[in-house]
Write a structure and sequence with these properties.
It is a single chain. The protein has two helices and five strands. It is of the alpha+beta class. It has one domain: 2-Layer Sandwich (HIT family, subunit A). It has a five-stranded antiparallel sheet with strand order 1-2-3-5-4, with helices on one face. The longest helix has 17 residues. The protein is globular and about 35 Å long. Bound molecules: guanosine-5'-monophosphate and zinc ion. Zinc ion (ZN) binds next to helix 1.
Length: 114
């Protein structure tokens, strides 16, 4: 997807601070961090929203959570706590239509979220 910023990051056509990569996923630092730790975890496959997930993607979604688990431990926020967020469509605030997990941590998180 040429017009997708995250696909362009995967292809290294747009620079980013990559913290993890394997055959099916990539994790990189959010350009506009909302917490001391704000890492985005994405599948390499272009899937616009959660609503577009198919049964065949079950493994992929589990994999993204596994990577979040690893990064949270690596960044020493696992025990303190962290938040995983996936926005879907306009009212949630989704701005990039390539599914991603936000891994947020390093400060106290508020609830309910804004
Ligand atoms: P959303 O609003 O779709 O849930 O989250 C999109 C996230 O992607 C935002 O937190 C935004 O700061 C981040 N983002 C948008 N464009 C870029 C970019 O070019 N590079 C990086 N590293 N993050 C981006
Ligand atoms: Zn994409």
């Amino acid at each position: 997807m040429n017009d997708c910023i995250f696909c362009r990051i995967i292809e290294r056509k747009v620079p980013s601070m990559i913290v993890y990569e394997d055959e099916i996923a990539l994790a990189f630092e959010d350009v506009n961090p909302q917490a001391p730790v704000h890492t985005l975890i994405i599948p390499k496959k272009h899937i616009p929203t959660v609503l577009d997930l198919k049964e065949a993607d079950d493994h992929l979604i589990g994999h993204l959570f596994k990577i979040a688990n690893k990064i949270a431990r690596d960044k020493n926020i696992a025990e303190r706590g962290f938040r995983l967020v996936t926005n879907c469509n306009a009212e949630s605030g989704q701005t990039v239509y390539h599914i991603h997990l936000h891994l947020l941590g390093g400060r106290h998180m508020h609830w309910p979220p804004g």
